[in-house]
Please model this.
Amino acid sequence: MPRLRRAILMTMRMALMITRIKITPITAMIMRTIMTITMIITTGMGTTSTITVIPMLMTTIREAPAGRDALMGADAAALYRLMTWLSPAFPVGAFSYSSGIEWAVEAGDITNAETLRGWLAAMLADGSGFCDAVFLAHAHRAVEAGDDGALREAAELAAAFVPSRERQLETSTQGRAFIETARAAWTSPELEQALSRCDGAPVYPVSVGLVAAAHAIPLQPVLHAFLHAVVSNWISAGSRLIPLGQTDSQRVLAALEPVVAATAERARLASLDDLGSATFRADLASLRHETQYTRLFRS
Model:
């Protein structure tokens, strides 16, 4: 019996060491050698007991990578969907809107990469970028918590929180397109339940928060991806209007990286009472665009 205990202990130690390394033909051969040695050392009842222990250890070794793969698979699916939904290729029509940047270029407020960066930094931190991110965060939390009242409040306030008719058209049209495409490609009972609690199609940031929560994608990466997509679309509009080269466009995007991160974090922690905008010139640009003589964009 003492030899049996020592043999089992040795076998378990070796098996635990093997679980930390990748199973290859070499490691499989080592495991078979361990079993052979153990069986030689033990006799009678000891041999039977050791053979019983080995399959359990082998099962543990096989199951550990499978659990990790399943977790990685869930994360990969969430990342895949997030990248798809907020890609320029996702059919929400974002390329046709400039959020007032077209008028700002015509008026001379934006003339080069540096003035575009400054304009967008203000819109991000103190304008529509921050406000939309707050609405997204509250819609996401409301869906997670199953709070119908909070979801309706965020959706109604977001629809009213725009400075011009064209911005209303921009956010409502994109929100409707986002919901319809996501529903068609990624069916989800949770999404249908969340939509049934909204009065009509929500505006764009609420739609993103609602869909992401219904698919169990965490809030923090959704906020970063959403703001990155918004900024990228603004820069795309600016690059066509100024015009701006591709390298300068990427420099602007790189320069706005800390602003995106800081705005996402502020929005994550903000309440609806913290909402507010101080980008008066950008709001004026959105209003003036409605009567602009020549236009490439819808807002």
Remarks:
- Residues 2-72 form one domain.
- The radius of gyration is 28 Å.
